[in-house]
Amino acid sequence: MADLKQQLLDWIEEDRRTLEGFFSDFVATPTPNPPGDTRKAVAHIRRFLDEHGLAHRVIDPEPMFPNVVASFDGSGEGRHLVLNGHIDVFPATPEPWTHGSPWSGAIEDGALWGRGSADMKCGTSASIFTYMYLSRLREHLNGRLTLTCVSDEETFGPWGARYLMEHHPEVHGDCCLNGEPSSPYSIRFAEKGPWWVTFHVTTKGAHGAYTHAGDSASLVAMDFCRDLQTSVDAIHVDPPHNIGRAIEEARDTLDRAMGAGAHAIIQKVTCNIGVIESGLKVNVIPGSATIEADFRLPVGCDRETVQRVVEEVLARWPQVTMEEQNYMGPSWCDPHGAMVGILQDNVEALVGYRPQPVVSLGGTDARLWRYRGIDAYVYGPFPTGMGQRDEHVPLDDFFHVIRSHALSAFDYLNGARS
Ligand SMILES: [Zn+2]
Question: What is the pTM assigned to this prediction?
């Protein structure tokens, strides 16, 4: 078995140029979402699979957002591992970028540059290569390996992983491994859940000089937002029993992976007032205002808990009504599941440290597996420049993610740590 794992590492080393070339061309095939058209990038993936003789199918309930799915069986009974990555990316941040256009895919200064390199064409490439290399060893493996490269992720749309999970149970599996940015020091086993709400403020308004004649919707909005923030901030949520310990143990790793202060908010309900719109003109007292709020619910928190508090606030502000935009609950799985130990062992053997299980602040498709009670873990590069200028992935990190995924998928299908 050690020989086969060394074989995997040797193949990756021999193929350096090919793997870099695939990643570079992948980034250089723009897939910004919106609009989310991934057809050219899907053609790129399919060419690679065809060149390696790997059967696959395209599932495209909406032709602009195709998904690529492939599976093979090992020689014996065993567990079913699903590799998942998305193809669409954030829109390009305006130029100038340091290394050409946002879609250059340039390899310079030891890194690969471009929109979507970190989130998440590095991780999706790792899934594709893992699938390709393990297919060569299929007679040594048990169980089943499935590859899912999906569209429509950035806007949490219905045509990508959500569609596959609802209509193609053959992609559920026993465990999902995903290469979204996590930092090489952490394995994400959970994520907070966004709840987006619009508030409408309606007052009488008046001529700007007649301040005695009507309330200002702008002032109500300001006071309401402060009340909302303070009230939500006071919500206390206890995490499910083994999650709290994992969060405490990963205190430093959380700050290292997501910036200083991340640990302090990981188990809190946060409230960001993303938008306030109000007023027509300097000399008019506004009669209406719109507020958009982004609440993030920690693991163990449900929408009803937050909604109750928001309704208490609303009771104090009869001028304000509420309208829900979107809700996706927080998701979590076993912080010490089989794949976590496998990843930790392999990463330690490769680079000398053990990544820690952590909760993610942002959202990924991994939640869809967790919602169904299936373990789903995220292990990928640093989120450097994600959604900003100069997004990039150091090539060392790119190869580290490929090696970690390939070796860990191998161990999982070999039944290590069952
Ligand atoms: Zn992503």
Answer: 0.91
| C-alpha 126 – ligand 1 centre gap (Å) | 14
- Cα of 146 vs centre of ligand 1, distance in Å, is 19
User: How much distance in Å is there from the Cα of 185 to the middle of ligand 1?
Assistant: 18
Q: Is the pLDDT of residue 1 over 80?
A: no
Query: What domain count does the chain have?
Result: 2
Does an H or E element contain 126, and which?
helix 122-136
Q: Are residues 214 and 253 in the same domain?
A: yes
What is the 8-class DSSP label of residue 91? P
Distance 67 CA to ligand 1 centre (A): 15
Q: In angstroms, what is the span from residue 413 Cα to ligand 1's centroid?
A: 26
Distance 180 CA to ligand 1 centre (A): 5
Q: How far is the CA of 364 from the centre of ligand 1 (A)?
A: 6
- Report the alpha-carbon distance of residue 159 to residue 134 in Å, rounded: 28
The Cα-based distances of 60 to 90, 138, 149, 150, 168 in angstroms read 21, 28, 12, 10, 12
Residue 203 · residue 220 · CB < 8 Å? yes
Give the residue-averaged pLDDT of 230-250.
90
Tell me how far the alpha carbon of residue 22 lies from the centroid of ligand 1, in angstroms: 19
pLDDT at 388: 84
Same domain, 82 and 216: no
The rounded Å distance from CA 31 to ligand 1 centre is 12
> ∠15-20-25 over CA atoms, to 5°?
130
Q: Based on the fold, state whether residues 60 and 186 are members of the same structural domain.
A: yes
Q: Give the domain range for residue 133.
A: 2-191+330-414
